[in-house]
Amino acid sequence: MYLQGHCCLHTQVPPFKKAFTETMPYVDYLFGNETEAEAFAESEGWKTKNTTEIAAKACAVPAALAVKGMMR
Question: In Å, what is the CA distance from 25 to each residue of 35, 36, 66?
Fold first, then answer.
């Protein structure tokens, strides 16, 4: 989903792992519930179920399009 030049993505990872991984560097807003966050972490090989840690790791994925002044 695109909103005024921003890319939003839902965390429905397992069925679409390859496409999801390729799209992550372009995502500005990633959203999902706790169960989906845990599934995302598991699919990435992260050994945590702590949603705060998962969010921090997801934010650390390098952005393909760096926009000056934009926080990720």
Answer: 22, 19, 10
